[in-house]
Amino acid sequence: MNYKCRLNQEENGYYVEFPDLQNVFTEGNTMGESLMNAYEALNGVLEVDVSHGLLPPPPSAEGEDLYPIEVAPHVEIAIQLRNLRGIRTQKSIAEKLGLSYQAYQRLENPIKGNPTIKTLEKIAKAMGQNLKITLSA
After folding, report:
1. Average per-residue pLDDT in the chain?
2. Closest listed residue to residue 54, CA positions, set 21, 26, 88, 25
């Protein structure tokens, strides 16, 4: 998953904004530095927002002047788990998985969660989904 950012060249560098996420912005002296800062800003904001139960809108921005910035895997997993849960409560999912409410709650929190692959397999099966993991360059 990635969100696209726009680099706006200014006198002393670049200002970075995300059309899909009005609360994420940063800057840098060079284009490379600005893109690195964009990764940190995007994931920092998403990590905090998702940990507080605020889900971001799905990525939708398109355009030749936009640069894709990857969402960190631990943040993306938390977002996917929350979306997969839908209108069901964390308590009901925890019971279905045989976990405590608190244990499941941590899985949807990118700051506290650290699910194992086996846990993700268990969640996928309980939700009628398949777990697919891809490593890429």
Report:
1. 95
2. 21
pTM: 0.90
Is residue 137's pLDDT more than 90?
A: no
Sequence letter at residue 121 = E
Q: What are the beta bridge partners of residue 28?
A: 14
Closest by CA to 81, choosing from 52, 107, 113, is 107
Residues in CB range of 114: below 8 A, 6 or more apart = 74
Residue-wise pLDDT tens digits, 59-84: 998 988 999 999 999 999 999 999 99
Which residue do the tokens 């977002």 mark?
Answer: 79
Query: Which pair of tokens denotes residue 61?
Result: 């921005």
Taking the mean position of all CA atoms in its chain, how far away is CA 69?
Answer: 11
Residues 6+ apart with CB under 8 A from 122: 97
Closest CA to 131 of 111, 119, 64: 119
Residue type, 1: M
CA 70/CA 5 separation, integer angstroms? 11
On the question of pLDDT at 25 being above 90, the answer is yes
CB 104 within 8 A of CB 93: yes
